[in-house]
Amino acid sequence: MSDDLSRFAINQITTPKWTMPEALEGYKRQGISGIAVWRQFLEAYGVAQTRKHLRQLEMWVPSLCTSEWLNVGVGKSMTAAIDTNRRLLDAAAEIGAACLMMVVGGMPPDSKDIAGQRARVRDALFALLPHAREVGVKLGLEPLHPMYAGDRSVLNSIKVANDLCDELGDGAGLVPDVYHCWWDPVFEAELRRAGPERIITFHYCDWLVPTRNLRDRGMVGDGVIDIPRIKGWLDDIGYAGPFELEVFSELDWWERPPEETVRVAVERCGPHVGAPSFNRA
């Protein structure tokens, strides 16, 4: 098997015990040059210092996560959220991130109008689009599992995300995550509809049975998702972009030493990227 990890990145939320410099150095030590950056770590270390450190280590960034949520009030509140997202697009451009992950937020306080909120999100994305195009950072539309519709995102299916990409055109793209989409009967069809150019980056983890809470994702190979089959669909459409391991795991992997988590990530998702061996740690 190849030891090429050139398409593989660790999403920084997978190792939350590490600061930004610790994550950069820790991933690189184990042969990983890709890091999906999280906003709180970036802000703590500083955008300029992060850029400098990335260049020193010759690392690349598939995404900056997350956007400012859009489940706010009307008027000035939405205007402020859009302005914050413009600044985040600037930060993403400075560190060389391909996209800003648009986690759009769930339902606004005191609202039950989900259709109305989805329309407001659409309008906000269109408001951000010119700046995204100007700085060369795509709006990454990641559909989240419907169980997150109330509190985290009202963008809840890959078809809806694809439809939005059709409307937005250049400047937006799709970020599928197996955790959020594996169950969807149209997952394969929508990946094929998107094609390799629309998919900016692709997220790996696994769905545990039982799932103990909403932050209880599995390491690749520990759950019920047929990741090799999904990887086969991506190969078939000619997807040549990055893969990110993104594991929320407050009951397991977040409690382990980050070095162990990264080591197991390489074993499970590589060395042949996208063809997990499912060796148990």
Q: Give the overall shape, derived from the CA principal axes.
A: globular
How much helix, percentage-wise, in residues? 40-55%
CATH class: Alpha Beta
Strand order of the largest sheet: 3-2-1-8-7
DSSP helical segment count:
10
- In CATH, what is the homologous superfamily? Divalent-metal-dependent TIM barrel enzymes
Number of domains: 1
Q: Mean pLDDT, nearest integer?
A: 94
Which topology does CATH recognise? TIM Barrel
Computed Rg = 18 Å
Helical/strand content category: alpha/beta
Q: Would you report the number of β strands?
A: 8
**Helix and strand run:** EHEHHEHEHEHEHHEHEH
Biggest beta sheet summary: 5 strands, parallel
Structure commentary:
- The chain is an alpha/beta fold and 281 residues long.
- It has a single domain (8-269), classed as Divalent-metal-dependent TIM barrel enzymes (TIM Barrel, Alpha-Beta Barrel).
- It has ten helices and eight strands.
- It has helices spanning 20-29, 39-45, 47-57, 76-95, 114-135, 158-168, 178-181, 187-198, 227-237, 258-269; strands at residues 8-11, 34-38, 64-65, 99-102, 138-141, 172-174, 202-204, 243-245.
- The strands form two sheets. It has a five-stranded parallel beta sheet with strand order 3-2-1-8-7. It has a three-stranded parallel beta sheet with strand order 4-5-6.
- The longest helix has 22 residues, at 114-135.
- It is globular.
- This is Sugar phosphate isomerase/epimerase.
- It holds the Pfam family AP_endonuc_2.
- GO terms for molecular function: isomerase activity.
- InterPro entries: IolE/XylAMocC-like, Xyl_isomerase-like_sf, Xyl_isomerase-like_TIM-brl.
- Keywords: Isomerase.
